[in-house]
Amino acid sequence: MMKQKYQKRPLNDTSASTDDLAFWMSKTPEERIAAVEYLRNQFYGHKGRPDFSALPALLNADQVEYMIV
What we know:
49% of the residues lie in helices and 0% in strands. It is mainly α. The protein has a domain at 18-61. The longest helix has 16 residues, at 29-44.
């Protein structure tokens, strides 16, 4: 059986955001995208999920130069 790992912290604890940033920056862009895809699948399920194929065109239309994932 897998145990869930989590930490409970007060909302005013700024070390949490620093720790989160350090964690995600230690991951490759591919791992970060995979994590976003995993969460998106959990939220939308495998059926009826939105199609993000138009995302590059939308970003280009708004002249987005950088996107941090």
